[in-house]
Specification:
There is one protein chain. The chain is about 25% helix and about 20% strand. With about 500 residues, it is an alpha+beta fold. The chain contains 14 helices and 18 strands. The protein has one domain: FAD/NAD(P)-binding domain (3-Layer(bba) Sandwich), CATH 3.50.50. The strands form five sheets. Strands 3, 9, 10, 11, 12, 15 and 16 form a seven-stranded antiparallel beta sheet that branches. The chain has a three-stranded mixed beta sheet with strand order 2-14-13, with helices on one face. The structure holds iron/sulfur cluster.
């Protein structure tokens, strides 16, 4: 949003609660990868499937996208009108065709490596601007299992440079993307949008926490924000437009905490929609150990191959499941253990652990199902009684997967284990269900009765207060959300710039 608005001639100030982070500070190590995760005010997590806030979010410049895995598939047309088609979930206020030009634009700007023809499930759109990412031994071993089960795999679309692109270097295939990519081959904010924003005069204040969004006496217009600066001073910053881009939990927290006499239940909350429909993808992680050498440390962290045979939402209906999932296949594995081998095998200790590690270092392989989580109104952000150091209530987030989403995860696990066994791995197991990606909380829609914002992220009752990010999603789909969040931001920025006088009036 900052890059687009600055390039549109607007004066932009970005505010970041965490520290500054330069690309030169991105260091490929387990320790530094962990330092990019959230270390701000803790979020209180509840429910049967907690949202894994620290794992999914970032802290400091670049936020979550600084360390994201760069898996960038498109959502499918049926994701946008799911309620009409299946009487499940919600409809989006836009169709795939509204977003398609912005998917095309963003993939040109950021750069995606892939092969659109091999991705037989892919919705219409421009071909990828770069050839596919490399496939290493782990990818080939797992692909064998898909072939034996009569399934197709294609190169995984990744916002990672397979070749030099836009003056950014090609990937080294060393698998340290979660540490931020020190060379700039990963399409994260440091490599793409921050330089564009700065080139057009945007400025950035770090260690500066927004504590409240302010409105005028009518309550119909945002006038700026209250912040606490790095020196602890409380200040008011005035602006004609406020964009909240603090991710799916902090955005609703801030809107709830900004309640005033015109908006006693929080900004954008006249119909009690704010904070509702928090969604995650249940991660279906399936592991195997092969006899052969898999070079599991090679490749981009996000993976090497994709399969979307289970995208049609009724595929696993007999198992009581509803929704889409895709397999992202052959993630690079590091000592960070971000994919949770240690939590999936707590039975291993002592000598059995040592022999496991000897087998795993040679032949380990992993793949992950991105399982759609249906929107549930009771999965929501509310304010806790406890306050942070600046006097803002902590966020409390309840999240329990819909039973049909939990059944979808189980169906994916069963299929994944069968695929890895068919590939020839004698040892196969799965991780417990964990939450990856956080969406919803400020969902978009056509009316205030069922949503917080319009399709451009503008609050229905405060048009110059705009939300950006996956918090806008009415449904989660069965693909990673970052590409769609970027496309929505590009669409929103184009609208704000073209309708500027009316938006800020
Ligand atoms: S695998 Fe490629 S994109 Fe990821 S950190 Fe290494 S060079 Fe960067």
């Amino acid at each position: 949003m900052a890059a687009y608005l600055a390039e549109g001639g607007k004066r932009v100030l970005m505010l970041e609660t965490g520290p500054d982070r330069q690309p030169s500070q991105m260091i490929s190590s387990s320790l530094y990868a962990r330092r990019l995760k959230w270390t701000g005010t803790p979020v209180l997590e509840e429910g049967k499937n907690p949202i894994s806030y620290v794992f999914n979010t970032g802290y400091g410049v670049g936020g979550s996208a600084a360390h994201h895995y760069a898996v960038w598939p498109r959502m499918h047309p049926e994701d946008f009108d799911m309620f009409t088609r299946y009487q499940r979930g919600r409809n989006w206020p836009i169709a795939y065709s509204d977003l398609a030009p912005f998917y095309d634009r963003v993939q040109r700007e950021v750069g995606i490596s892939g092969d659109a023809r091999q991705e037989i499930w892919r919705p219409s759109g421009e071909p990828y601007p770069m050839p596919p990412v490399k496939v290493f031994a782990q990818g080939h071993a797992l692909a064998r299992g898909f072939a034996k089960m009569g399934k197709t795999v294609a190169p995984l679309p990744l916002a990672v440079n397979s070749v030099v692109y836009n003056n950014r270097p090609a990937c080294l295939w060393d698998g340290w993307c979660d540490a931020g990519c020190p060379i700039g081959a990963l399409g994260n904010p440091h490599a793409v949008h921050l330089p564009r924003a700065f080139a057009k005069g945007a400025t950035l204040l770090t260690d500066t926490t927004v504590t409240k969004v302010l409105t005028d006496s009518t309550g119909r217009r945002a006038t700026g924000v209250e912040v606490v600066t790095h020196s602890g001073e409380r200040q008011t910053l005035n602006s004609s437009l406020v964009v909240l881009a603090a991710f799916s939990i902090q955005n609703p927290r801030l809107l709830l905490a900004s309640a005033n006499n015109k908006h006693p239940k929080g900004l954008g909350n006249t119909t009690d929609q704010l904070g509702r429909y928090v969604m995650t993808h249940l991660a279906g992680v399936v592991n195997g150990i092969f006899y052969e050498e898999t070079q599991h440390y090679m490749g981009a962290l996000g993976g090497q191959l994709v399969n979307q045979d289970s995208y049609p939402k009724l595929t696993h209906r007999k198992a009581g499941a509803f929704g889409s999932y895709q397999w992202i296949i052959a993630q690079a594995v590091k000592p960070t253990d971000l994919l949770g081998v240690s939590t999936s095998r707590p039975d291993l200790i002592g000598a059995p652990l040592q022999t496991f590690m000897q087998r795993a270092k040679r032949g380990y392989a992993v793949m992950t199902a991105v399982c759609e989580g249906l929107p549930v109104a009771e999965n929501r952000v509310t304010l806790a009684q406890s306050l942070d150091e600046h006097g803002v209530p902590q966020a409390r987030v309840a999240h329990t997967a819909h039973p049909e989403s939990a059944a979808l995860w189980q169906a994916a696990i069963n299929e994944g284990k069968a695929i890895i066994s068919a590939a020839g791995a004698p040892e196969v197991w799965n991780n417990p269900a964990g939450s990856m990606h956080i969406m919803g909380g400020t969902v978009m829609g056509n009316t205030p009765a069922d949503s917080v914002t319009n399709s451009f992220g503008q609050l229905h009752d405060i048009p110059n207060l705009v939300v950006a990010g996956p918090g806008l999603f009415p449904t989660s789909a069965g693909v990673n959300p970052t590409f769609t969040a970027h496309a929505l931001a590009a669409r929103s920025a184009a609208h704000l710039l073209s309708d500027w006088n009316r938006v800020v009036a």
